[in-house]
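<tokenise_the_fold>
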Amino acid sequence: MRKLDFFSAEQQDEFVANVFRLKENGIFLDVGSAHPIVANNTYALEYNFNWTGYCFDLYRIMPGYWDGKEKVWVDSNWYDKRQAPWCQLDVTSEEFTDFLRNHFPKGTIVDYISLDVDMPDRSLSLIALERILNSEIEFKCLTFEHEVYKWGHSYKEAAADLLRKRGFVCIIENTRMYGGGMLPDAQQYNEDWWVHKDHFDQAVLDFHVRNMYYFDAVQALRRSLGNDYTAHRHSNQAFPTQMDYFISDTHQQSHVCLNHPWKPAYNLDLI
């Protein structure tokens, strides 16, 4: 049985691996990529399956905020860790649309887009989605962070309207996070995960769950599709009793555990 390493904070990478049935040599866009490895949604695709693409963010130093203190993600050594190029772009700008038009000739189809763009006072994922759609590139799969628990339903509903009109189907709706301190777990709805009806078989298109913890949703999808692998999930333990983040490039572990004893979940040899 194949052994796979996953790194997303909420198993977006494992979701993508499953809907594509462990496909090799795919293409991704990581929009709001942050750290090159830790809690990154595309590193596992590159590491396990030889995918390639582009990663976008505005800053080379990102604030971490899970424990209410200022921590730092430093990705200055991006190219020591990743093959995919890192692009410093404002993904809410026309420059981003132009970049996509220039780098993806007509007829190119992107397999997966990770869309997670926000500020402390608002989400920007919807604007970034509009910029992507304006570029007229085709894509098969999208994970969209709407953060209903913080911003209400407006971003989620507007994005859903845009995507459904273009043939997308939401197969995992309102992924639930574990803890976080803002609301009870039951209300921590964070993302919708979409696939395009023209690029997936009926087994994928017929799958639909909503309001589930992301671990449960991904494992239900995995069982439904019959994908066979063992997983090491590095960025969190993926269970409600344990969530650890490791946000250092220097093998100095900086972690926050949400009301639970600390247990290492990250393999530092992979950094």
